[in-house]
Structure formats: structure tokens, C-alpha cells
């Protein structure tokens, strides 16, 4: 489990980036918290810097849209999903279950 | 409409194919491309692909498993359009008949006079251009880049990343200053300086010096400058823009001049022929003629043009977002809107001396453009919230 930030640091409409070899982006979409791979599946861009609209984030580089609930892209140029992660809030701190990652391939099969 | 020919296996051509299928066209589609390659993405050619960090497969715009029901005619050039008979004549003598035509032929990179056939002198537009250039970047060549636009700057950045000695020549006082003004031109100049690239502004190339290269002809040894100077070079990369590939349409009845002329919806004089991407010179909202040479523009135009092609008339007009980006020296420049010289630059965050900042271009009391260096989040917010929406189409 990875610590992302405190609840106060992630108000609605905001995002944080957990750096690392495979950085993770955590979003507060109108009160619901979501975590996905931070790096766009199309080209190198940080989704934490993207525009949040409902439970979709738009990549800041080429405007690919990802559904925060599933990681699936809903428009070009992205064609592959990003991984999603479970988010947990405990004692005012936001944690991400990075070891409990949904499998991106599995999601694709299920779609 | 039962069949459509897309001329140009480019980003614009690939997006046109996807739009045709996405918008419900189930007829025959033929995609004609002069290059032997299936449609590929060009932006990485000056960056990751040139550096050897990604391979050809990563550039594919259309997955082989995507069944879009297209017939490829690759490695042949469309040489003539005979609209009365819906006929395209190809360079191999073949013919393609179609009810609708999407012109997406892009353009050709300009080069220096006298550069034709001289080994070591490169342009960078196609995959094969990138492969040829990449093959010459081993063995510590001295690289001179003519032109400090985005392509030139990105090539310089990649070459510095490979540890090469790089000089960039620019005719203007500062890179891109004609588009972004002197303050942001200075920012582009600073990026070169901070990363060990020598930038020589107000440098006009007057010629190439060459040496006999045996049976292969001649090979470049350097560049002569108009001020009398000379720069030795093992590899010269020319990044001085492109010319739209529209000459093949002369005689077709379509208006050609710095591209193919279209209405505001990318439709030519013929309702069953549309033009998109770098080659399309469309009617703007102020009675002007516009043509854009950008990745995003090609993708935006494809959807509009296909809607109008399938409708048989112009039901949608195109409004360009003007979005461009450039990755250089580990940083990212993003621009949106339509800035012009004389606009007032207003910094929203940071200063132009900083490694990250965002600014707007102001004109007549409104925001007409957004510029950011390493500030994607604020850039996208300004783009949505500050940028004046384009004037409504009458």
C-alpha cells in the first residue's frame, strides 16, 4: 500500500502524482477517489496533469480520454487502457493499493 | 456513396479511414500511399525514434488487428485525379475508381539549393528520412541543423542526448520569433544554450561545401554562411519547412495554390472531394485562407471532412484549435490558439527565465493564445478557460 497524500491535499477536481518507476495518478472526481497509471498509454505524458471532467481525465498532451473507473480509453489517440488501482482512506490519509492492481489485459478482455 | 479513396497514408489519411468507419460508412475504402509504409506517427521521428529508443512498431497508427476493411495501395503515388470519372491514376499505371476522394497528401520537406544528391545532407519528414539520419549519427559526427523551428530544435535536442556536437543556424534574431515574438524566442534560444547546443542566429546559409565521395557522388563537409563564415559539418539537417504536395492536382479542375483550396468545411469545389491535413488550404472565418502543418489539426480536420463528404455538402465548418507541442531537452513546450507577432504576452505563472511557466497572448482585449513550458496542467486550464472562443461562423 502506498501513501498518496492527505485527504485535505486532494480536494474535488484535483489530482496528485505518486512518483516511482511506474508513477500513479490519484484523482478526486467530485468526491470519489480514483487511482490509475500516471503515464498515458499513448505517449509520455502525466495524466495527473490532465483535465478532469466527471470521472474522465483528458491527457494533457494529445487529449486522449480515460475512464478513471476502468482505465479504458474512450477516444484516440490512446488505444490501450491504463491500469487502475484501489484507493483507501484511513485517518485522513489517502492510500493506493499498488500491489492489488487490476490487470490491464484482463480489463481489455472483459470489455 | 459506395466507395472512397484516401490519397495519403498519413496521420490525416489514417484518421479519415477511422472517421469513415466511425461515422458508419460501410462501403469500399482504398488507402493510397506514396511511401511503402502503413500509416505511421511522425512526431517521434525527431525524438524517441531518431534516438533509437523506440522501434517502427511503436509508430503504427492503425493496428493490424483493427478490421477497418481497407485496401492498401502502398508504394505508389497518385499522379492524376479525373473527377468526372471518379478516377485516380497511380504512378505504377494502375487506376482507382471511387465515388468520394479524401486528399491527404501532406507535403515535402524543403531543402537547401544544391543539396540534392549530396551525402550527409538530410531533411526529416518521413520514416525513411529518419532511418537515413539515424544511421549517420553514430561515430561522433559534427551536426549542423539549418533552421531552429520545432523539427530543427528537436533534432538538435536528440543529437545532444546522443552526446554529439550540435550547431543550430537560424536566420531570424531568435528561434520562432516570427510566430511567438522575441520574448518566447529567447526562451527557445535559452533551451539550446542550457543544453550545450550552439545557436547562431541571424545566420543565413549561402551554400554547402562538399568533397568527392567516390562512386556515391559528393559528400557534405560544411556550410557557407552569407556573412562569409564557414561551419564544418559531417551531417547537415535541413529544417526549413515544407511545401504542400498538391501539384499532382493541377489540371483536375480543383484550385491549387499553396495547397488545395477548400471551403470552411474542407470540401473542394467538388462536393465529393475533400482535403485535410498539411495540404488543405481552407477558407477561414474572416475570408482568409488558412493552412496548418500540425498533428492535431490533421486529426481535427478528418472528422469534419468525413462528415461533409458523407453528407454530400458542407454541414460542418472546421475551427482549428492551433494546438502544437514540442519536446526538447527533456522539457515540453505547448501552444494553443493563434498567436501573432504584436500580441501582448502576459505571464500567468512564473517568468520566461524559469524552467516552468505559462503565459497568454492578448489582443484587442481578449486571449488569443496560450504558451507553456513544462506546465501542462495550467496550460490546459488556460486553454479551456481563458482562450477566447473562435468567432462564430456566419
TrEMBL record, chain A:
Its EC number is 1.14.12.19. It holds the Pfam family Rieske. Residues 2-96 form the Rieske domain. Keywords: 2Fe-2S, Dioxygenase, Iron, Iron-sulfur, Metal-binding, Oxidoreductase. One of its GO terms (molecular function) is 3-phenylpropionate dioxygenase activity. It is an enzyme of class 1 (oxidoreductase). InterPro entries: Rieske_2Fe-2S (IPR017941), Rieske_2Fe-2S_sf (IPR036922). SUPFAM superfamilies: ISP domain. NCBIfam families: PRK09965.1. This is Bifunctional 3-phenylpropionate/cinnamic acid dioxygenase ferredoxin subunit. It comes from Amycolatopsis samaneae.
Automatic annotation (TrEMBL), chain B:
Residues 323-384 form the Reductase C-terminal domain. Residues 3-302 form the FAD/NAD(P)-binding domain. The keyword Flavoprotein applies. InterPro entries: FAD-oxidoreductase/Apoptosis, FAD/NAD-bd_sf, FAD/NAD-binding_dom, FAD/NAD-linked_Rdtase_dimer_sf, Reductase_C. Keywords: FAD, Flavoprotein, Oxidoreductase. Its cofactor is FAD. It holds the Pfam family Pyr_redox_2. This is NAD(P)/FAD-dependent oxidoreductase.
